[in-house]
Amino acid sequence: MSAFRDGLFDGWTVFVAGGTSGINLGIARRFAELGAYVAVAGRNPEKARAAADSIGRGAEGFSCDVRDYEAVRAVLERVHASRGPLDVVVSGAAGNFLAPVAGLSANGFKTVVDIDLNGTFNVFRGCYDLVRKPGASLIAITAGQAVNPMPFQAHACAAKAGVNQLVRVLAMEWGPEGVRVNGISPGPIAGTEGMARLAPTREIAEALASRIPLRRFGEVSEVAESAVFLSTSSAAYITGTILDCEGGSQLGDSRPRL
Ligand code: NAP
Ligand code: COA
Question: Is residue 254 part of a domain?
């Protein structure tokens, strides 16, 4: 049950990079349900259009690769031209796979860093002069890999650690203009591409869930509620933080032991 009321974001403009599937689509959908105009962007134009159609309420889908600054900037300018200053910008595009460093090419490492970290720079740098000042809420979708080293995840660990630091630096640089910059670190979220890649079998998924203090994977809707919270006036004094929405996962293995 959501604590947020209908119409909360009436008249708001929200942009979600990587908002065409999974967690980010759930975030986009929730902002739209609460009244915002929402633009979602991904590489695949058909997927973007289908995502916008599934959201309804006037949502629009755009195509750009977050690794291409000019392409990201062009989409942000289109949204700004038609809808005015952006109230919320979410940077959630990411790529991931399991690979040991010894099985990872330089281009494989670079690809994930380019999407996750450089992509987040491109989205936030690209929106700087297009967001509402004061008042805008910028949110990066990061991951536990940013702080907890994980084998076969060197690329994601390095990229997301960079995302967390980028969030903190931008919070310092843009705070004086009334722009808040935060991150959300989801734990394992049920039914997502990310978990299909990192926990590909039911056995692995159940083993993972058994170690989480809340004993379950999270829901897309639960991450969406965190993004909504960070964008409301209830979070007006929160910037530069990484909000863990992960059932306590980062506390470590919570199974009883000696
Ligand atoms: P997902 O469904 O695969 O979503 C990824 C989104 O990013 C899609 O919209 C995809 O659309 C887009 N995208 C990928 N590469 C892109 C690029 N180069 N340029 C523009 N868009 C691009 O992933 P998810 O599992 O929901 O994860 C979403 C976010 O949550 C990610 O930041 C991930 O690191 C984070 N996260 C997920 C989990 C989890 O349990 N799933 C846990 C912790 C953190 P196109 O393919 O059309 O480009
Ligand atoms: N193990 C090792 N290396 C891999 C790999 C894997 N499972 N998958 C891809 N790579 C390497 C490729 O071999 C390539 O390196 P090379 O040129 O040296 O051979 C490099 O990564 C880029 O692969 P490519 O397929 O050209 O990249 P892309 O830009 O088309 O796609 C990915 C990016 C690889 C991240 C792709 O998985 C993707 O689009 N992911 C988006 C969805 C996603 O990951 N969702 C979960 C988010 S948490």
Answer: no
| 99 pocket-lining for ligand 2 (C-beta < 6 Å) | yes
Q: Which ligand is nearest to the CA of 102?
A: 2
In the reported structure, the alpha carbon of residue 257 is separated from the centroid of ligand 1 by a whole-number distance in angstroms of 35
Domain with residue 117: its CATH number is 3.40.50.720
* Run of H or E including 197: helix 193-198
Q: CB under 8 Å to 1, separation ≥6 — which residues?
A: none
> Given this model, what pLDDT does residue 48 score?
99
List, in sequence order, every residue forming a beta bridge with 218; answer none if it has no partner.
Answer: 189
Assess contact for 114 and 65: CB atoms under 8 A.
no
Residue 116 inside a domain? The answer is yes
d(CA 117, CA 66): 10
Number of independent structural domains in the chain: 1
Q: Which domain holds residue 157?
A: 13-186+219-244
> For residue 8, is it within any domain?
no
pLDDT tens digit string along 20-75?
999 999 999 999 999 999 999 999 999 999 999 999 999 999 999 999 999 999 99
pLDDT digits (tens, 9 = 90+) for 198-246: 999 999 999 999 999 999 999 999 999 999 999 999 999 999 999 999 9
- Residue 130, in any domain of the structure: yes
Q: What is the pLDDT of residue 257?
A: 84
Closest C-alpha residue for ligand 1 atom 44: 143
